[in-house]
Amino acid sequence: MTTLYGIKNCDTIKKARNWLSQNDVPYQFVDYRTDGISHEQLATFAKACGWQNLLNTRGTTYRQLNEADKADLTEEKALILMLAQPAMIKRPLLEHEGHCHLAFTPDQYQRIFGL
């Protein structure tokens, strides 16, 4: 089973979903905002991808945090921030055949799916 995680109105998510549909790749979409994500699941992703890679520090949500929240980030503190503000989870996150992949480019997905 292939699962794509993200936020439905994100432009990169839209591109990834279009690519999957155009290439007839069956997948389930999980929207962090509407479907939610558990601490356990997020911790699993952090272990697979690295919590620093999973935390979207380029986004507006992260940049608008006060300095105290950004200071001395640990994995646990980052997970709590991401659970509170799912927009801080880098997207898309693709789970396929037991592996997690961050971001989207057509070339990357072609390699993942062997197309």
UniProtKB/TrEMBL annotation:
PROSITE patterns: ARSC. Gene3D superfamilies: Glutaredoxin. CDD domains: ArsC_Yffb. Signal peptide: none annotated. It holds the Pfam family ArsC. Belongs to the ArsC family. This is ArsC family reductase. The lineage of its organism: Bacteria, Pseudomonadati, Pseudomonadota, Gammaproteobacteria, Chromatiales.
